[in-house]
Amino acid sequence: MDAIKLSLGPFQGITDAPFRNVFKRHFGGIDKYYTPFFTGIQKDHAKNMQVEEIDPRYNDVETLTPQILSTDAEEVLRFASQCKELGYKEINLNMGCPFPRVANKKRGCGLLPYPDKTDSMLGTVFERIDLKFSIKCRLGYFNPDEIVPVIEVFNRYPLSELIIHPRIGKQLYKGEADVQRFAELMPMIKAPLVYNGDIVSVESFERIREQVKPVNEFMLGRGLLANPFLAEEIKGGESHDLERLHAYVVDLYEDRLRHAGGSPKVLGRMKELWSYLMNSFDEPQDIWRKIKKINALREYEEAVETVFREHRVI
Ligand SMILES: Cc1cc2nc3c(=O)[nH]c(=O)nc-3n(C[C@H](O)[C@H](O)[C@H](O)COP(=O)(O)O)c2cc1C
């Protein structure tokens, strides 16, 4: 199982720097991380790049790839040169975001129906970029054939990797990932390929791995948010342990609280994580009912203690 490489997909509002650092302290199995996407890099040394999220004092530049959502080659290059200055080795372009307010502006997966536009952007980027450049995309925005001409475009450039999440944008995160379609596309693609979608257990991992052989890089998503032991389990390590899970949840909360100067705004992000993590427990809906309505720190702390006292990890 040594050859398998696992990464954690970016989640806007969840997998921020405190999350990534705390996760790494408590769990193994993840080889690579991505930041949730940056946008609006209007100038060199942009304000939104002067943040902990990308500051090398809080991040490991060797295993973290910053992501950008853009269709403007100049903005991508600006982002790339600032990331390079900070010590990063690679950036990733988001061509997967499915939300209509993004995709309707031909951004995220909304760029997939426009191979010519993609080509001209990548042409400019690759003339001048001096660090590794990868792309994360879906099968299309409206239909799963849109990716075919885009693959021809991708093949003209030395992408460091191509991560494909085999859904279309219109599905958002619903329905199933089309593993079969991913497998059909594999022979057409030159870039090192990474599979992402619906890996929620060792069983689903093994099933998907069998279908996409010889791909050996996989990005985990909601499956890992729900079960933080998943990467360890896939790599043959230990499995569920209530104490470790408890320590992780408390550490993440305290770390976020410290970074937010004690502000209750951390509750939003913790609740968002719980909307996935509840699935690690018996009676997830009971737990969610308790947690979702909370809006004071003290209440949250008590609810978490109750969950770990009264519920079992499954
Ligand atoms: C709330 C939310 C936020 C996300 N934010 C990002 C993001 O910033 N960049 C990105 O490339 N993907 C983002 N994703 C997609 C995930 O990284 C991942 O590709 C997706 O959940 C599919 O994998 P899964 O089926 O294993 O969960 C987001 C998904 C969700 C549900």
**Ions, cofactors, ligands: which are bound?**
flavin mononucleotide
User: How many distinct folded domains?
Assistant: 2
CATH class of the largest domain: Alpha Beta
Percent of residues in β-strands: 5-15%
Question: Please, could you describe this protein's structure?
Answer:
Helix 1 (17-26) packs antiparallel against helix 10, helix 2 packs parallel to helix 4 (115-128) and helix 4 (115-128) packs parallel to helix 5 (147-154). Helix content is 41%, strand content 13%. The chain has helices at residues 17-26, 73-86, 100-103, 115-128, 147-154, 179-185, 202-211, 222-226, 230-234, 242-259, 266-277, 284-292, 297-310; strands at residues 5-8, 32-34, 64-65, 67-68, 90-95, 132-140, 162-168, 193-196, 217-220. Strands 3-2-1-9-8-7-6-5-4 form a 9-stranded parallel beta sheet. The protein has 314 residues and is an alpha/beta fold. The longest helix has 18 residues, at 242-259.
